[in-house]
Amino acid sequence: MDHQSGHLFFDPSACHGNMLFLGSGGDSVFRGQRTMLSMEDNSKRRPFFSSPGDFYDEEYYDEQSPEKKRRLSAEQVHLLEKSFETENKLEPERKTELAKKLGLQPRQVAVWFQNRRARWKTKQLERDYDVLKASYDSLRSNYDSVVKENEKLKSEVVSLTEKVDTKETTTEVVPISGENLVPPAEAASQSVNVKAVEDRLSTGSVGSAVVDDDSPQLVDSGDSYFPTESDYPGEAMQSEEDDGSDSGQGYYTHVFAEQHEEEGEALGWWVWS
DNA sequence: TTGTGTTTTATTGCCTCC
DNA sequence: GGAGGCAATAAAACACAA
């Protein structure tokens, strides 16, 4: 008889106090014990009762220190796992049935399920954390890109503004008052020149005197650095209140998707399992 | 062999539901 | 109020490096 399967789930010596192992001879605990003898052979592990008779084996009994926990056998765990996969909650009938089948106390089965649910929850939290972290990392990287782009655009604005200023200062502006008042006809002519520059600036027309052909074109004169809806026809500009239940295709995603596509990256937006 | 960290089994106390 | 669930915790069993 193989006593080396290493898992004993019942310790008769522990039947005292408020411990719930067994109060009596341990009827159901021993049921099915013989079917659990084909566990892995692990000589490092200690023997367990192979039959109810062993329970009364004083020689063995004396070796056991009181209140020792016993691990469930691999077969018991396997069955419990299978049962857990089916349903992670335990109705009373199922608990009794499983307990009988495994030769355990119903309480032990209940405790096992309790602990198993706790382990599952922990794992689930870990998974959720990983998903959230991936999502955060992606957002963070996108945010950094936007900040960079923002800085770049700002410096462009500064450089263009400087160009405009240079143009304006080279244009002779007529003083409104002073000794050197110009004749009305001449003043009108100068005023037209200035206005023409302003007009070109405001319309952003091609061939502007300010914007060189080979310079980056500032297309939009609005306040925002971001395009309007017309820039991406047919795409909704998403607000922050969106619940994320759609594909999340706002401007940011559009831009970032393009950006990441160029970099050969796959965007993992809100990939919930 | 031993020290240490992890896993598993079990208890306790509190909470919710019927 | 009893049953069952969960969180926190204890403690035994186990794994593993030094």
From TrEMBL:
Which parts of the chain are coiled coil? Answer: 122-170
The processes (GO biological process) annotated in the record are: positive regulation of DNA-templated transcription
PROSITE patterns named in the record: HOMEOBOX_1, HOMEOBOX_2
Please provide, alphabetically and separated by semicolons, the GO molecular function terms listed in this UniProt record. Answer: DNA-binding transcription factor activity, RNA polymerase II-specific; identical protein binding; sequence-specific DNA binding
Q: Which Gene3D superfamilies match?
A: Homeodomain-like
The keyword Transferase belongs to this UniProt entry's keyword annotation: no
InterPro entries hit by this protein: HD, HDZip_class_I_plant, Homeobox_CS, Homeodomain-like_sf, HTH_motif, Leu_zip_homeo
State its location(s): Nucleus
Domain (Homeobox) ranges: 63-123
Renumbered residue ranges of the record's region Disordered = 204-253
Q: What does this protein do?
A: Transcription factor.
Listed name of the protein: Homeobox-leucine zipper protein
Write down the species: Linum tenue
